[in-house]
Amino acid sequence: MPKQIRDLLRAEVSDGRFRLAEVDPAATPGLKSHKRALKDLPKHQAQLFELQEKLYAEHKRALLLVLQGMDTSGKDGTITHVIGHLNPQGVKITGFKQPTPEEKRHGFLWRIRRNLPPSGDVGIFNRSHYEDVLVVRVHDLAPLSVIERRYDLINRFEKQVASQRIKIVKVCLHISYDEQRNRLMDRLKDPSKRWKFNEHDIDERAYWDDYQSAYSLAITRCSTLYAPWYVVPSNDKTYRNWAVARILMETLQEIDPNYPQPKLNIPRLLKRLRA
Ligand code: AMP
Ligand code: MG
């Protein structure tokens, strides 16, 4: 097995163009077996918890996970099953929906900037500024010239964020058209999932190819060294959780946070406590 799952899943823009259609949503790169993933997951969760604890204690740097993907791709499930095992005190989760009237009065990065994680935290974006070059592009919600300028604005913004010691990790959860149908059907059939069903998701399915192109373009233009895109095949939910946990673990290991070691006169303090 290769050392880093990140190397297998990082979106490579080789001939000037990344094509999402070339990634198999049912693949499980780097994983030997389903059993292995089930065995690894609790270990990874424990390792993630410890790394996060150090990040929090150190209080100097932050991690930002940007989660994107089609409806039912598993953004919520990833947050529950991977992020749910972190210490909630150091986690800041933000979901981005259709902009509110107040948000509309500002530039598209305004609401993003306000929700960046503070030092020591792990920030999670459930959708993000990328919606402004995805749904907005697919549905012509802004003039094309405006959308075209946004890719550079995003890159500049992310570079600035990275320079504030916030490590950005962008993950695209990639499912197939058929898998989406199955998941929408599950939502209809299962009374415990019905609340998540939104007929609008069926309308959006008609734009599947346009979304795939918009994703390919966003990943092509906004894959940078300081804010890489990872494409996680997500038809298999166990693989998805395993892979996202690995990506976070590898990234936190690279950040290598440390517990602060304040200079304390331990013998004197112990003596005081014993007195
Ligand atoms: P959900 O993630 O299922 O709660 O749905 C949120 C919805 O808000 C999705 O349909 C997104 O495409 C939409 N959305 C998020 N950001 C924007 C944006 N900037 N402009 C238009 N729609 C957006
Ligand atoms: Mg939805």
Question: SSE order in H/E notation?
Answer: HHEHEHHEHHEHHHEHH
Computed CA radius of gyration, to the nearest angstrom:
20 Å
The helix fraction, in percent, is 40-55%
The name of the CATH architecture is 3-Layer(aba) Sandwich
Major sheet, described briefly? 5 strands, parallel
Counting copies of identical and different chains, the oligomeric state is: single chain
End-to-end distance: 56 Å
CATH class: Alpha Beta
How much strand? 5-15%
CATH-assigned homologous superfamily: P-loop containing nucleotide triphosphate hydrolases
Q: How would you state the average pLDDT, rounded?
A: 97
Tally of DSSP β-strands: 5
Number of helices: 12
How would you classify the helix and strand content by structural class?
A: alpha/beta
Number of domains: 1
Q: List low-confidence stretches.
A: none
Query: Globular, elongated, flat, extended or rod-shaped: what is the shape?
Result: globular
The strands making up the biggest β-sheet line up spatially as 2-3-1-4-5
Which ions, cofactors or small ligands are bound in this entry? Answer: adenosine monophosphate, magnesium ion
Enter the CATH topology name.
Answer: Rossmann fold
Describe this structure in words.
With 275 residues, the protein is α/β, with parallel strands linked by helices. The protein has one domain: P-loop containing nucleotide triphosphate hydrolases (Rossmann fold, 3-Layer(aba) Sandwich), CATH 3.40.50.300. Helix content is 48%, strand content 12%. The protein is built from twelve helices and five strands. The protein has helices at 5-9, 34-58, 75-81, 101-104, 110-113, 135-138, 144-163, 177-189, 199-205, 208-221, 237-255, 266-274, and strands spanning 62-69, 91-95, 122-126, 166-174, 229-233. A five-stranded parallel sheet has the order 2-3-1-4-5, sandwiched between helices. The radius of gyration is 20 Å and the shape is globular. Magnesium ion is lined by residues 71, 198, 201.
